[in-house]
């Protein structure tokens, strides 16, 4: 019995050892399977998560990418149809003398596909006896539009007060100073809306107003200034331009880089000079531009014949790339920059320009970054500016891209205000 007992115990020990060995192997295998399964699951989950994250990022990228607005798309489509000559012509606003559409040369200038026309009734006699009714001016405007390939800007300086160019049709309008003295910015807003309504009756779609120069009425500009206090200018000029633009008429802040602090020279007769420091200008003359550009999105800013030494000690504002750069990149203006009229003596050593001098100035204004140059009186001057700009592009001193960007700004403004339907 003892031998049997020993044999039995030995067999039982061997079976137990085999059982333990099998159990260990089985457990080890399960663990391995589980690990592989978890690893595969993790890998699959990570891949899915990665694909999901990538897809989400792509969707977010598409969602956050700025959409191109309808006006821009329309402007881009028009730009693609334009010839090189037509693009440059779109950057030119012409004037004309007297009231005859043909003999004044206006019909021929319109046929050059210029971007706009300026009425100058006081200097050029556009509303004289032979066209002294609303119906006549309206018909004249309609003829200009009918003869243009792309709907033109038809502009006037209607400030009120001393510069009240439609008063013969509608009576006198209050000056900027009078509006500010009312103590109620709403009066400036309402007056601008009345002005807009009257301009539309005449077929005019642009107002070169308001004046945002900062200065007292004791200067030669008198009541054209709202105030000598910059925030008051910003308040009332801002209300005025909002009234115009809410009524569908693009307005214009002028005269950059500021005449209020100049030495009193009339830019029609000489070149005004501003000697203030940049700090002083930023706390005074530039305040209305800064505030109105930020708050009221003005359609246009007009550069003028003034030498602002803190920005460019050598070159008048409308001919200066430094002044344009300050307006674009410091004051962050992204609308249309238009020049003051090119005839003023301040650009030409205090003398009236001949046609070739005006052409040279017009080419320079476009080269430095103005979008719209104003003043040609003849087809010769229009053709000369177009040829001069083309020559600069061919020479590589002016890029086609700069021209395209300027034309896009003009077209977008025309579309926004319903000038281009």
Structural notes for this entry:
Helix 4 links the parallel strand 1 and strand 2 (116-118). Helices cover 52% and strands 9% of the residues. The protein has 16 helices and twelve strands. The longest helix has 63 residues, at 2-64. The radius of gyration is 35 Å and the shape is globular. By secondary structure, the protein is of the alpha/beta class. Strands 6-3-2-1-12 form a five-stranded parallel sheet. Strands 7-9-11 form a three-stranded parallel sheet. The protein has a two-stranded antiparallel ribbon with strand order 4-5.
SSE topology sketch:
Layout: H1 2-64, H2 70-80, H3 84-89, E1 92-94, H4 106-110, E2 116-118, H5 121-124, H6 134-147, E3 153-156, E4 158-160, E5 163-164, H7 167-170, H8 176-181, H9 185-201, E6 206-207, H10 230-246, E7 252-256, E8 273-274, H11 278-282, H12 287-296, E9 300-303, E10 307-308, H13 321-329, E11 336-339, H14 355-367, E12 373-374, H15 379-395, H16 400-416
Parallel strand pairs: 1-2, 1-12, 2-3, 3-6, 7-9, 8-10, 9-11
Antiparallel strand pairs: 4-5
């Amino acid at each position: 019995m003892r031998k049997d007992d020993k044999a039995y115990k030995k067999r039982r020990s061997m079976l137990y050892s085999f059982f333990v060995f099998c159990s260990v192997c089985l457990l080890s295998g399960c663990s391995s399977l589980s690990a592989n399964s978890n690893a595969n699951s993790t890998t699959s989950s990570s891949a899915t998560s990665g694909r999901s994250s990538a897809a989400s990022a792509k969707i977010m990228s598409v969602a956050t990418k700025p959409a191109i607005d309808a006006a821009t798309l329309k402007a881009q489509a028009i730009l693609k149809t334009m010839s090189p000559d037509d693009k440059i012509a779109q950057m030119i606003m012409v004037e004309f003398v007297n009231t005859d559409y043909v003999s004044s040369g206006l019909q021929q200038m319109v046929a050059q596909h210029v971007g706009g026309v300026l009425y100058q009734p006081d200097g050029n006699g556009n509303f004289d006896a032979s066209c002294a009714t609303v119906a006549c001016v309206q018909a004249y405007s309609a003829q200009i539009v009918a003869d243009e390939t792309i709907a033109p800007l038809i502009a006037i300086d209607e400030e009120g007060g001393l510069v009240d160019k439609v008063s013969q049709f509608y009576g006198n309008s209050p000056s900027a100073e009078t509006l500010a003295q009312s103590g109620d910015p709403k009066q400036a807003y309402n007056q601008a809306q009345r002005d807009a309504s009257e301009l539309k009756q005449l077929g005019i779609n642009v107002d070169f107003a308001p004046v945002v120069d900062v200065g007292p009425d004791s200067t030669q500009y008198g009541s054209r200034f709202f105030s000598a206090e910059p925030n008051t200018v910003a308040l009332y000029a801002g209300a005025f331009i909002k009234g115009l633009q809410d009524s569908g008429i693009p307005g214009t802040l002028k005269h950059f880089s500021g005449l209020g602090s100049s030495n009193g020279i009339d830019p029609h007769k000489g070149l005004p000079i501003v000697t203030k420091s940049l700090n002083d200008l930023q706390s005074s003359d530039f305040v209305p531009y800064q505030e109105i550009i930020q708050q009221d999105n003005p359609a246009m800013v007009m550069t003028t014949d003034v030498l602002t030494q803190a920005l460019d000690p050598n070159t008048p504002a409308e001919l200066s790339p430094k002044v344009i750069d300050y307006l674009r990149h410091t004051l962050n203006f992204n609308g249309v920059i238009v020049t003051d009229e090119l005839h003023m003596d301040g650009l030409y050593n205090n003398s009236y320009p001949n046609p070739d001098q005006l052409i040279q100035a017009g080419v320079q204004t476009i080269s430095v970054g103005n979008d719209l140059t104003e003043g040609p009186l003849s087809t010769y001057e229009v053709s000369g500016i177009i040829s001069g700009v083309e020559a600069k592009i061919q020479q590589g001193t002016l890029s086609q891209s700069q021209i395209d960007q300027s034309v896009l700004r003009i077209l977008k403004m025309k579309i926004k205000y319903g000038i281009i339907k």
